[in-house]
User: What shape does this take?
Amino acid sequence: MIRHKPSFTLLDGLIILLAAFAFGYSALVVYGGPAPSSVVVSAGGKDWVYPLSENREFAIQGPLGITRIRIHDGSAYFTESPCDNKTCLSSAHAHASGDWIACLPNGVFLRVEGDATEGQVLDAIVR
Amino acid sequence: MSKVMQRKDRCSMPLSDEPQPVNPPLNPPNEQASHRRLTAFLAAMAFFLSTVEYMLPRPIPFMRLGLANIPILFAVDLLPLPWYLLLALVKVLGMSVLTGSLFSYIALFSLAGTMTSALAMRLVRRVARHRVSLIGLCVAGAVSSNLVQVLLARLLVFGQSARYMLPAFLGLGLVSGLALGFAAQRFSTRSAWLARVGGQHGQSRS
Assistant: This one.
């Protein structure tokens, strides 16, 4: 005889609702910001901020080596990474507020955000 | 003929789709050996599913279905806590060997995620007992695993920026937890093998 297993229950629904609420709330906080204006790259405890509107290419030093990042036509993406899996290179280009690309092995994190410097002309800021 | 019969007796997999009688609970002397065999079998299943998952194309980076967690999900109702935790640990080690990340700190993320997920599922089962199905267990496990991995990323690697990962990880945890939970739930109501193993091991858990 096959043992009775509970099918979908009220508690299942509650757990799913809680997870959906946590997802919705975090999405609202992360993606609900102002219009995208800058690219923030974090590595080794420092942040570098670049305007999203200016095309450029730059290198960031991580523990494994150099990660190269390109900003082109309002999108930012990784072009070169010393990591093995290259997940960061195959990530979708970041162009909207809240978009991000991460390279865990080399400890480099890129995100797009809209911030108070919007409208200002900046070359690059190190935080 | 007798050889065939002996092999059948040792085999843990279902031999037919026909429902089979639930075996009586194990006697204490046989219990440990039986738990050891089931742990080894579930760990082997986790390795196999890891390999299958490794071969599947990922539509987006970080998208991981978590197929190898299915044996741990079933083990919630089958194994005592020490064997259950051992299964989770062996699964992490096996996956890290398969992906070549054993001696990198990526293995730490895998370890933290898997152990958190395993403990969360066990805790939910303990508190809610059978008022929650494998679907709720799986979602709780997947989401808690992803949460802990984002927390680790914040503490060890990316700092404050890691908060940007939360929506993607929570969303992926929810979707993969639901998909695997429904699949596991459907399997559990139809599998004669699981019914037989549950009859041997599960009764000692409740």
Notes: Chain A touches chain B through 41 residues (CB under 8 Å). The CA atoms of residues 50 and 123 of chain A lie 7 Å apart. Strands of chain A lie at 38-43, 46-51, 56-61, 66-72, 75-80, 100-103, 108-113, 125-126.
